[in-house]
Structures are given as C-alpha cells and as structure tokens.
Design brief:
single chain; 690 residues; Immunoglobulin-like; 3 domains; 38-stranded mixed sheet; eight-stranded mixed sheet; disordered N terminus
C-alpha cells in the first residue's frame, strides 16, 4: 500500500434488480439445542470455523488465491471522524490483523485482532485528538506465521463544523435526526431500552457518524405486538435506527447492537432490526458493525427501496438461531423486501455469521460470508435481477446452506465456496434432521414455466467436505424447457467425504423435472475440474432428475481409495438420459468404466473431437457405424476442420457403439474415403485427394 491521505467517505454505485417479499410462514419456532442455548450460537460457530476453514484446510485455497500473502489494494477504505476513524482493508489470504496508529510513524497504539482469521478486516481507531494528523500502518499475520506490514499512511481527524452532537444536543432516546443535510455525531457509547435513532419521513441527506462508539438498543424486553398489521410493527417496534422515505442517508464508523431484550421480529422480519429502512434510496452505509440475536432478525432491512445505494466494509454478527418464518424475508444480514430495489452495490462486507442468508444486491463482490444454516434455503449470496457476483467468499455449514442463489441473466465468477459438514443436531425439521451443503443452484419449482436465461458461471472454486452423514452437491442445476443457455465454464469443484456414514456427495448433481425429461434443454459444463473420493457426477437424486447435461473438455479426478467411489452414478429410477461426455480427461483412477447406471431409461454418450487436414474448401461428410450422416462441412482456409464423433452410448443394458466412422472428402470432382475409430483424445487424420 502506497502512502496516502484519507479525507472522505466512499461513493455509491451499482446495477439494477428486484426482490419480492413472500408472505407465508412456518407455524413453529425453532428450538435451540441445549448446548448452543447455554453457550451461545456464535462462540460455537466460531470454534467450528477455526477448526475447519482457512487456507491451510485445503490446498485449493492456495490454488485460488496464490501462496503470496499480500494486502489487496482495492479492498482498503478509511473514514476519519472527530476523535476516531474506521480503517478497513483486505488480505489475499485469511489472517489476524490489527492497525498500528499514532501521531508519528512510530505509532504507539494498536487495535485488537479479530477472534479468527478473516480476509476482510474492519477496525475502529478511538481516543484520537481533534484536527490532528495521524499515521497508521496495517499489520497482518496468516496461518503460516507470515507477517506483512503496509507502508505508512495518514489521515487527519475532522475539525468540528456544523455538527449536531448526540446525546449532547438532542433530547432522547430515541434521538430524532430530523434536519435535512444534518451531520450527527455520536460522542459516547449509549445504551437505550427501546429505539436509538429515528429519521422521520422525507428528511434527506442525513449523516450519522457513530464516532467509533457502540449503540445498544432494545436493552429492555418489550411486550409483543399482537397486531397482524405490519404497519403496527413498523411504528411500534424498537430499532437501532429507523428511517422512513429518506434519500441520501449516510451511516459510518461504529457499532449498533441489539441488547438483552432480544425482541423478536414479526413473521416477515420487521421489528427490532438494527436498521429498518423504509422507502429509502441513495444511501451509503459503511464501516458499521451490526450485532443482533433476537428471533427472526434481519440486520439491515430495506423495505420498498434501497435503490442507488452502496453497502460496504460493514461487519454483521448474528448470534441467534430462532426463526418464525424461513420464507420470503427470512433471516438475512442484508435484505431488500417488497420490490423497488435496483442499482445496489454490496462490497467488502464481512458476515461473521448468519443463521440463514447473507447478502443481496445488484453488484455483489469481494465479500466474506459465513453461513451457519438453521433453516431451509440459507443463501450466502442472492442477486437482484440481472446482477453479478464476483470475488466473494462463502463458507459455511448447517441445515441447508446454498452458497449462491439463482435468477436470470446473472453472472457468477471468481467466487470461492467452502462448505463443511457437521452433525445434524436437531436444527430444523422441515425436511427431517439433516445437513445439506450446496454450492451453486438453479431450481425450477414444480411445473413452473418461469424463464431462466443466459446464466454464466465461470472461474469459481467450490470445496465441499462431508462428514457425519451430511449430503452435498457442488452444483445442482435444473435442466428444463425454460432453462436456456446455462453455461458452467472453467470452474473447480472438490467434493470429498471423511467417514463411512457419508455417501450422498458429488461435484455435480444433474437435476430437473422428470415429468418433462424429453423437453430438457442442454446445460453445458466446459473446461471444469471435478475432484472427488466418492462421486464426481451424480445423475439425479431424490430432489430432482435432470437430463441433457453436457460435459465438454472436463477433467474428472479421483482422490483416495474409498471402495464406494464412482466417476458416474445414476441414483434414480426416473428417466435420466441424453447426457454427453466429450473429450474427458481422467486422473487418479477416475474413468469411463467407473460407472453405475442402475435400472431405468438412462444413457450417457461418449464423444471425441477429431481434427482433419485437407485442402481448403474440401467438402467433408462423416457417417457413423450405421451409415447415418453425423457431420457435413467445408475445410477452412487454413486447411483444417474439426468435428465431434460419438464413440458409444452407455445404457444399463450395455454399450451401443457408434464408431468406426466413414469420412468422405470431396473437392473438384475428386473423392476420397477413409475409416476412423473415435475412441480417444487428440486424433488427427490427413485426407489425401487422388
């Protein structure tokens, strides 16, 4: 990091999208197992993360990020205040870090390190003097003991201007921030029984600087609001900060924490949130730690709004497990509910734990998210319409964790997923007592005709490690008449089991609606690497059975010596066919003979790309073993042409051979015929016309 002076906060940017809030709920509240209830969910999950995650946990982490330990220049952000500053930064590998600071480049003070190794680091520098230049330096140590230090940088604390001091200049609580364009500065830690801050309707361009302090709200337990009208909850519940139809809200530099009252939100997650933002837009929320634990809680609830906003360099700590309704709003770190949200940028946030879902936005990038799933459909990242997710790290475990949700016209690239199995332990009962680990997913529910087009997944890394009877899918994509042009390119998936209890784990599970098998459009996987010690490809499972999945130029690698291992496995009696493996590469004992099709209308066709050399404009036709023409085309100006030939189609009854093939070359009335056996990679044939 080069020397620089920080004097301003960040900007707002992003792209468009929408999220629809569902209105149904479950009838029962989740009961927390005794161990978690007594010890606290967060400490238990933190211990789990320390044990199972980190660069040393799997070599693919270093493969994804490199072994060189550095600061990521684009991840740095700082906000200087009057007597404090927030300094945030990113490291290339997980690390414990702190900030050295002082009035000279000898520093003298430092912040505390976090409770475990992270990629994203957010620190509060407090006890500073007004209008003074401060030097600071970033220090981080990775798991291998490598220590890096940034170059010296400086910032200057803000000289007081037209600032409204809280609680000095305001009555409260709640402290009503009702001056448009007002700059409010918190001057000390505060603890309140109910609501801390309230931005009334249509007050614009309010800045709340938390001054490096901690705000505890909902310290008192309040009587339950019995009304089913959510407006009664919006008006009557207590919040860390509530803003109504405000534009240009800015919140920086401090902590908002739910207190000992731990009131529950209502079924759609409204009430007692650290932040409830209704109809707001043009916001910048950065350098804020949101700490919460009550039932059905969401940290930042954007209701009917959130457009043209940026949420960045924040820390989310969910200490709870209880849900009333896992549908719709559910329990998320960041939520956009009710529609009307677009152009939302979400970047460089650290979600230390969420009981259900993590972050949502249009452009979601370079975030670090830990999911401890206590309900069905716990998504690490979801995108608003047409959004992009890149450079995110999603790690987790639990009842039903799905690292990335799905939509249409979305792009996912350079993301890192690491999911670890654990004992089921009675977390949730909707689909039995289970642990389900899933990387990327696209599901077409029931007989829906919802269109999903042009989703593109590339250059991602997925690690799933199963134990204690959990299930896992690296990817689970539905092939369907309405799922079109889904591409999965140049990704790496590793799915391994660690005990004999665990068997239902695979890099890819081909899913779909078996009632319309013959109409499934192809899903294409190209240039990927699939690594497993139990199953690389599972064709269908109890949740969905998809046909017409095509694997082009993919590597299938076996690790370990588990006798249950199969490269290709059919796990269904429903039709599961039209699958293609083209130009595969095998390592470690994986191969085309490591296959179990079971009984049913199942098939897999093996194909190879063949290259032919002939004079330009030579017409080439190819017929298979039965005489059926399978290719026709002309040689290009460089004198070569490529075509794909089938070797055989594998069915439960055996192999139906498609080769040898007859190649006919014709040019200027001269014809030549040659036979070729398509049974392996890299075949080139020279066609001589005589």
């Amino acid at each position: 990091m080069t020397k620089k002076t920080w004097r301003s906060a960040a900007r707002t940017r992003g792209e468009c999208g929408v999220f629809i809030l569902a209105a149904c709920w479950l009838s029962s509240v989740l009961v927390l197992p005794a161990a978690a209830e007594q010890s606290g969910a967060y400490p238990l999950f933190n211990d789990f993360c320390v044990k199972h995650f980190g660069a040393e946990a799997d070599e693919l982490t270093y493969a994804a990020f490199g072994k060189e330990f550095t600061f990521i220049e684009g991840g740095a952000w700082a906000y200087p205040s009057e007597t404090s500053a927030c300094v945030a930064f990113q490291t290339s590998l997980p690390a414990k870090a702190y900030v050295e600071f002082g009035t000279t480049d000898e520093y003298g003070k430092k912040t505390s390190s976090a409770e475990r190794n992270f990629y994203i680091h957010v620190h509060y520098l407090t006890g500073l003097k007004v209008g003074k230049e401060y030097h600071y330096r970033l220090v981080a140590e990775d798991e291998r003991g490598n220590v890096i230090k940034s170059q010296d940088a400086t910032f200057k604390t803000v000289v007081p201007g037209d600032v409204i001091r809280v609680p000095d200049d305001l009555d409260g609580p709640p402290y009503v921030l009702d001056k448009s364009g007002g700059h409010y500065l918190l001057t000390k830690d505060i603890l309140v029984d109910g609501m801390a801050f309230d931005v009334p309707q249509k007050v614009e361009n309010v800045t709340l600087d938390l001054g490096g302090h901690t705000v505890v709200y909902n310290e008192k337990a309040w009587p339950k609001i019995e009304s089913g009208n959510f407006w009664d909850w919006i008006r009557g519940a207590k919040y860390g900060l509530r803003a109504m139809k405000s534009t240009g809200l800015r919140v920086y530099n401090g902590t908002i924490k739910q207190g000992a009252g731990r009131n529950s939100a209502q079924a759609n997650s409204i009430g007692y949130n650290p932040m409830y933002l209704n109809g707001c837009s043009g916001m910048d929320i950065a350098g804020v730690t949101l700490d919460y634990s009550g039932p059905q809680q969401t940290a930042i609830y954007n209701h009917w709004g959130g457009s043209n906003s940026r949420f960045h360099h924040n820390v989310f700590v969910d200490r709870g497990t209880e849900l009333i309704n896992r549908h719709g709003a559910g329990c998320k770190a960041l939520l956009f509910g009710g529609g009307g949200s677009e152009n939302v940028t979400v970047d460089h946030n650290l979600v230390k734990r969420t009981r259900q879902s993590g972050l949502v936005g249009s452009q979601v990038f370079d975030n670090e998210i830990y999911v401890d799933s206590w309900a069905t459909n716990s998504f690490g990242v979801s995108l608003l319409a047409g959004g992009k997710a890149h450079g995110n790290k999603v790690l987790g475990t639990g009842y039903h964790v799905v690292a990335f949700g799905w939509g249409s016209g979305q792009e996912f690239y350079r993301n890192f997923i690491h999911l670890e199995g654990t004992a089921a332990g009675g977390r949730f009962k909707e689909y039995g007592d289970q642990i389900s680990l899933n990387g990327f997913r696209l599901t077409q529910y029931g007989g829906s005709s919802k269109e999903y087009k042009d989703n593109f997944y590339h250059d991602n890394t997925i690690i799933i490690r199963g134990r204690e009877g959990c299930q896992g899918r690296g990817v689970q994509f539905f092939s369907d008449p309405y799922v079109e042009n889904l591409r999965f390119v140049d990704n790496v998936i590793k799915a391994v089991v660690e005990d004999s209890q665990t068997k239902q784990l695979a890099c890819v599970v081909t899913q779909g609606n078996a009632n319309r098998t013959d109409k499934h459009l192809p899903i294409v996987y190209r240039g990927n690497t699939f690594i497993s010690n139990i199953c690389n490809m599972r064709f269908g499972d109890y949740y969905g059975v998809g046909s017409n999945h095509h694997f082009y130029g993919c590597k299938f690698a076996r690790v370990g010596d588990d006798p249950r291992y199969k490269t290709f496995l059919w796990d269904t009696g429903y039709p599961c066919k039209k699958h293609v493996v083209r130009d595969p590469v095998f390592e470690g004992g994986a191969g085309l003979d490591s296959i179990h099709l079971g009984d049913g209308d199942h098939d897999l066709t093996v194909e190879w790309t063949v290259k032919a050399e002939a004079p330009p404009e030579t017409k080439i036709t190819v017929a298979d073993k039965t005489g059926t023409q399978v290719f026709s085309g002309n040689v290009g100006k460089h004198g070569t042409i490529q075509f794909v030939l089938g070797q055989y189609t594998q069915t439960p009854e055996g192999r139906v051979h498609l080769t040898p093939h007859t190649i006919t070359a014709e040019r200027e009335g001269i014809k030549s015929t040659v036979e070729i056996v398509a049974d392996g990679p890299g075949k080139t044939i020279e066609l001589v016309l005589k």
